[in-house]
# Entry
Amino acid sequence: MKIAMLISQFPPSVGGTERQAFLVSRELARSGIDVQVITQRYQRNLARQERVEGIEIQRLGFPGTTRLASLFFLIRGFFYLAFKRPRPDVLHAHMIAAPALLTWIAGICFNRKTIVKVACSGPYGDVLTSRETWYGKLKLWSVLKWTDCFVCLTNEMEQEVLKAGAKAAKLVRIPNGVDTQRFRPVVSEEEHIKLRSTLGLPAGRWIVFAGRLTPQKRPGVLLDAFIRCKAMLPDANLLFLGDGPEKNRLEKKIQAENLSSRVLVRGNQSEMDAFYRSADLFVLPSAAEGLSNSLLEAMACGLPCITSDQGRGELIQNDRTGLVVPLDQPESLSRAIQDLLQNPTRAQALGSAARKKIEEEYRIETVAQKYAALYRELVGSTA
# Structure
């Protein structure tokens, strides 16, 4: 069976959608499925074609992320699929974006089955952001009408796609997954301490945020919450891992509050598993999430987690697998941080429950098996 993954950007891009596309593609390739990724050549230094961990990657178009670059990717992608032999059995797009348009157009022209994975819901989600422009509305209407199947991560996504006009029979629920062998709990306090030393983190307990530093993720809310509780937690520190437009604002406020020794902004990191295992608490106060990669990874590492009631993506059950606080309420978030850092037994119990949930429901091997079953169902194959 041959599968083509169509996505605007692919690793080394570090977004959550891109990371999931890589994880699923790699696991499918390991299981014997022929996987090719067709993506934009969004940076000039990226190879036009390469093979990474069993995945064939084809980068088309010219560098950039403009609408013109997306249009050129559509045109190049169509002709690439037109002349490719043998053609993929299934065209699988990630997000309702330019690759989803290419997917349904090529699917109709070349008689191929099509899948679109919806990435997010709410004000930052695929449906509502598509409705902001006439082009987006046309894209949304055409994708909903002509795509064979939509993969939704959560019930909220399903409801949005249904209300937008998709048929219920086209919807399938498959969650994001995580590599539970890489992202795992520490085995001892000695490993915990050694990791901190290796990563250059000073002594003390560490609260970690991981994600894009954008308004959607609400890093400023976390900083405000930390400022409120820092006096009650004199050994606690805060670490931001990620980059984005909010970075400068965060750094200015950190300096203004004289917190440079207790609050670090480290940017994007390749060894995220080590940072999670070195931490004591993970916090993600987002205004919207699909099914957060960083939250999946932190839970897989057995970290106690706090998230907002808009960003948990069905992962966190309050007081069972983590804590849930109201969106944009730093006071409530501050109290939750104090609660877990001052009650290590409770924090450990929540972290253990989080790890168990991930092992039971979100292992990447299980997620890839669900996609393979969906592909076989669509093409009527038992391969």
The chain has two domains: 2-177+363-379, 189-361. The domain at 189-361 is CATH 3.40.50.2000 (Rossmann fold). Residues 248 and 321 are 33 Å apart (CA to CA).
